[in-house]
């Protein structure tokens, strides 16, 4: 049996939300021996939340709160762990920044193929956490100096979008495959709204919007809050459920202050981050997901939350991101400003029964084309070409 070494973007068995690499690696473990790099004392890790058959690759981690500093101070230990692991693997799948640089250098030394699962353009996503233009520039340039050689030394690159592939082809000459993000087709499927609201303790009969996942600076949530305020002033009863977390905390606190200033607390239902297994209930308890992404950075992605909402038969209100429209023909309601957002909400309210029926039927297509099982098979096809 061939052996695959996986370098994940975080501690995928302990992070609150199972990410793309977890879903792919857990399915690859049915066909390959998977060696999995752990990140002991990772700042985003909790107790073990999930598992799949694997061989642990670990080290004695130094705990620090800052994510970037964690990888720097633990780099010598990560290098030592990977120096032992890479020669034992038939191929390496890596999906990080500094650990990816280490992994690709070692893979090149030991003549092992390396696949970079490059889910977004890391220099931009890393810089997004900083407010200062100078800090953004330093982080962007510093991160690029790390990811570029990791990209260059990889045998193959996998990205989740055509936009990101087009961008990477302008800076590097490597085979690049597009494998979008997916959905757990068994967990995310249509369910009765009343039962879902009861399950999460949501006591409202109003049309309800969902903001979930990462509540952070790469989103423009403020216009959504203003729009909901204006809708309620027009006696169009709309609530918002907010369930998620903010990496920097300040953006979430800023939104809470804004909600209070607008005296909108009665229309807002906040929940702490929830286990992944409960998210289908939150999606089904609401009428529509809001994906208020800023243009630019997120243009390269196909966010899991959008696919999961469509799999549950729920429409998605989103900003005008070209990549989304390539993948999803039904269920997207595009807005560009507060007025078009409000018009979309009014249209959904007026035509809810028809829309719900159409999207419930469309759910089966989404769960087939974007299931993690289907996408893992595409990964297997790539592995067959490099091993």
Features:
Glyco_trans_4-like_N; glycosyltransferase activity; seven-stranded parallel β-sheet; Rossmann fold; alpha/beta; transferase; Glycosyltransferase
Summarize the structure in words.
The protein is an alpha/beta fold and 387 residues long. 44% of the residues lie in helices and 16% in strands. The protein has two domains: 195 residues, Glycogen Phosphorylase B (Rossmann fold, 3-Layer(aba) Sandwich), CATH 3.40.50; 178 residues, Glycogen Phosphorylase B (Rossmann fold, 3-Layer(aba) Sandwich). The protein is built from 16 helices and 13 strands. The strands form two sheets. It has a seven-stranded parallel sheet with strand order 3-2-1-4-5-6-7, sandwiched between helices. This is Glycosyltransferase. GO terms for molecular function: glycosyltransferase activity. InterPro entries: Glyco_trans_1, Glyco_trans_4-like_N.
